[in-house]
Amino acid sequence: MIDLKAYPNRITMDVIADEHIRLFKKHAILLCGAGISVKSGIPSVIPFTQHLFRKLKASEADLQTFLDSGFPFEAMMEVLKTRLDIFELLSVFDKINVNANHQLIACMAKRGWLRMIITTNFDRNIEAALREVGLSEQQDFVVLHDLRLMKKFLLKKKILVLKIHGSIEDHPSILSTITGVANLANRQRMTQFLDRLFSSGQFDEVITWGYSFSDHFDIKPAIREMSPTTKRIYSVRYQSGILPEKILDNSNDELFRNFLAATNWFCSLDKIVKSAARSMGIRLKSVKKLPWKKMMSGTLSKEITGHGLKNANGILAALFQTAGHTDIAKKYAEKELAKCTTRSKDRLLRMDLLASVGKAYLRDPNNRDPNTALKYLEEARDVASRLQLSDYTRIYNADIGSCYLMLERYAEVEAPYLEAIIYYKGLMSDPYSRGMAVDRVTGYQTMLAHSFAKLKNYRNALALYKKTLKLCEKEGLLANQELCLAGYGLAYGLSNQPEKALPLFIEGYRLAVLNGSADRIKSQFYLTCSWMWSAKGEAEALKFYTKEYDFVHEKTGMDKSLKAIGPGLTGSLK
After folding, report:
1. Predicted local distance difference test score (pLDDT) of residue 287
2. C-alpha span between 299 and 291 (Å, rounded)
3. What DSSP letter does each residue of 154-178 carry, written as one string?
4. Is residue 434 predicted with pLDDT exceeding 50?
């Protein structure tokens, strides 16, 4: 570990680089993320998202709203996969263009210092760099995409490249959507993997390069849940420009509580790599950035046809709708709908836009209008019926059931939900349809449970919420899980059990923050404040309100006082 007393003036890049070399000579392992491949012309999440939205012709203000909301990349890809070929979009990662970071990794591996490289990246530049220095796959190094195979190779004297979110040449291995990363099976595999890894006696230190620890759905939970370890972790946290007086920070981050020690280096990875290469006598080659924007633009030009579900405004409406910005979603849907007359040949597009506008009126917490929503959704359903799209007909029928629920037409609620639930349950045994089917079943069961609660049938409501919640957790359906928690909590609250309601609202708020939907963050914040007041008193509610206010205000524009929220909230708060 760096002895600060030995460097009374300033820790330099050479000192940090020498510390890297010392740790890697002791067989420290490397965990690396998207930051190591940016110099190769491979985009990280924000530039990828910016370019996508600009090609869809979103306004800069709306793009910034989307970015500021913190809506997860995986959730965005979940929406896009229903409309575009996401593997075509991800082809921007399928470019081999080895940069200095990959080169230094390969050189340290060849010298026998670096025996294990763990990466969340899909690209193949680490493997390419290993080949460039004369190492042979299978003979000298092994690349694994399946965490379950790690144990088989852990004790073998080969370099391991573990691509824990998959690799671009193997599409089924890629974990780029919420359901891919957040399902229970993947989370369990990740936790078991880290437990095995950090109980191994083959190394004592972990170094992270270009990794932000923003994988909230699998890696971060697994780090929190893993068994305590004697390993130390060192993270290079990017900082450019002139070095500050202090770049070393012994972290007290709760995320690393199971490590023996955690240290952050706030500095430039480029400078560390250059200094380490100079010390090792390695001549780093220059690299020309690939024109990824041009490549992505070409893919999007083919994918965004302007018709059906591949219309730019329709895609934007779906993205903003899912991100909880229903007013913006409605704007893009209505803009395109104005061009679509009832005689339009593109009836599929008209159906999609009608549904988007209807759902916006149904879900907008500031302008909820179930009567207007019903009008649009009934028209969308009729178009779907004429097009003989039975799947969409059932979806819109269920959405109409949600309108009935808000209009207190409870006698008409149950039938459309039950019809959809029975149909999609029949598809759950089909591996190709299972993901979509489970999403629909859990969503509709949650709404059916809402209707039971409204009818004061709390026993059936609680039983259905409990059953649905388990399925959501298993399948990684965070949006449905969060909605289910809200309803579950309200069912307990309405049946005069606020002490059971509160933990459900607290967990629902946590998931809403994680999932990044603005309207759901606001809704769960209101519910948590309100039922904390009911369960624990106004003073405790005020503590929570004060602690979370700045975050919620920044993300959603919420400006209600705690008094305005009040205790025992059971409906919308405008």
Report:
1. 87
2. 13
3. HTSSSEEEEETT--TT-GGG---SH
4. yes
CB 510 within 8 A of CB 546: no
- Mean pLDDT, residues 239-259: 68
**Which residues in 168-241 belong to E strands, given as ranges?**
205-209, 232-238
Query: What is the percent of the chain where pLDDT is above 70?
Result: 93
Residue 135 sits at the vertex; the CA angle it makes with 134 and 136, to the nearest 5 degrees, is 120
- Would you state the structure tokens that stand for residue 350, as one six-digit string? 């008209």
> What are 213-217's contacts with CB under 8 Å, separation 24+?
213/255, 214/45, 215/120, 215/165, 215/181, 216/72, 216/514, 217/72, 217/74, 217/178, 217/181, 217/182, 217/187, 217/476, 217/478, 217/514
Other C-beta atoms within 10 Å of 507: how many?
Answer: 18
Q: Name which of 210, 207, 238, 260 is nearest 20 in CA terms.
A: 207
User: Nearest-CA neighbor of 234 among 216, 214, 249?
Assistant: 249
With vertex at residue 231, the alpha carbon angle to CA 228 and CA 237, rounded to the nearest 5 degrees, is 110
CB-CB contact of 201 with 236 (8 Å): no
Dist. CA 293–CA 41, nearest whole Å: 9
Write the pLDDT tens digit of every residue in 255-269: 888 999 898 888 889
**In the predicted model, what is the mean pLDDT of residues 495-512?**
95
The whole-model pTM stands at 0.85
**Amino acid letter at 161?**
V
Which 3 state secondary structure label does DSSP give 276?
helix
> What local confidence, expressed as pLDDT, does residue 573 receive?
47
Distance, CA of 539 to CA of 294 (rounded, Å): 56
The mean per-residue pLDDT over the stretch 162-189 comes to 88
Whether 521 and 512 have beta carbons less than 8 Å apart is answered as: yes
Mean pLDDT of all residues in 526-550 = 96
Exposed, middle or buried, 246 (CB in 10 Å: 0-12/13-18/19+)?
exposed
pLDDT over 90 percentage in the chain? 62
pLDDT at 6 over 70: no
* CA separation, residue 130 to residues 143, 159, 160, 209, 336 (Å): 11, 10, 11, 17, 50
**Could you give the 3-state DSSP secondary structure of residue 278?**
helix
| Of 410, 478, 474, nearest in space to 447 by CA | 410
Question: Which of the four pLDDT bands, split at 50, 70 and 90, describes residue 33?
Answer: very high
Helix (H) or strand (E) holding 287: none
Residue 248's DSSP bridge partners are: 265
Name 236's bridge partners. Answer: 265
- Say yes or no: domain 12-45+94-280 is CATH 3.30.1300.10: no
State residue 27's pLDDT score.
87
Give the Cα separation of 166 and 145 in Å (integer): 5
Q: Domain residues of the chain, as ranges? A: 12-45+94-280, 501-574
Q: Are 314 and 304 in contact (CB under 8 A)?
A: no
Q: What are the backbone dihedrals phi and psi of residue 377, each rounded to the nearest 5 degrees, phi first?
A: -70, -35
The per-residue pLDDT for 250 is 65
Give the amino acid at 463. A
How much is the pLDDT for 119? 96
